[in-house]
Design brief:
Blueprint (H helix, E strand, L loop, with lengths): L1 H27 L2 E2 L2 E2 L7 H4 L7 E8 L2 E5 L2 H9 L1 H4 L8 H6 L7 E8 L2 E5 L1 E2 L2 E2 H7 L1 H16 L2
Antiparallel strand pairs: 1-2, 3-4, 5-6, 7-8
Length: about 150
């Protein structure tokens, strides 16, 4: 009886925490119709060093955020260690998060892998924020990390 009760309490707490995490992620992450990175494969940035469109038939949902993978191998890698492959700052422009703490759209083909993490950038018209990031990367990264924590707390 006591074991059953403890199991039910644990199960309830797990569901409650997951629901809260999922809500925060879908509220703050850069998603369109729950799809992250505009349908690009987050694992391919690491394994192929390029942006590769994913396939909706190889979708992975991580706490309410859906990623499309381009191969079964990449899907398996993402399922195994999602935190390794998910983009920083919820998939918003890293430069904008560092410079002003704002959520700005990205061009999935403008990215950088830094210290094993994926950073995405705005690149449209005459504005590419990746070179701006590179000029002051250390300072902008520190600010972006802090700004993202503040964003998640809202």
């Amino acid at each position: 009886m006591q074991k059953t009760f403890l199991f039910l309490v644990f199960a309830f707490l797990t569901v409650a925490v997951n629901a809260q995490t999922s809500g925060l992620r879908t509220k703050h992450f850069n998603i369109e119709k729950s799809i992250a990175i505009k349908g690009y494969d987050p694992v391919a940035y690491f394994t192929q060093n390029k942006a590769v469109k994913g396939n909706k038939n190889l979708a992975v949902s991580i706490d309410g955020v859906i990623y499309y993978c381009s191969s079964q191998t990449n899907k398996d890698l993402l399922v195994k260690t999602p935190s390794k492959y998910e983009p920083q700052y919820g998939g918003w422009c890293a430069y904008a998060m560092g410079a002003k703490g704002t959520k700005v759209e990205i061009d999935p083909e403008t990215f950088k892998i830094l210290d094993g993490k994926l950073y995405l950038f705005y690149n449209k018209g005459f504005t590419n924020t990746l070179p701006l990031w590179n000029k002051d990367e250390s300072n902008l990264k520190t600010k972006a990390d802090s700004n993202w924590k503040t964003t998640l707390s809202k």
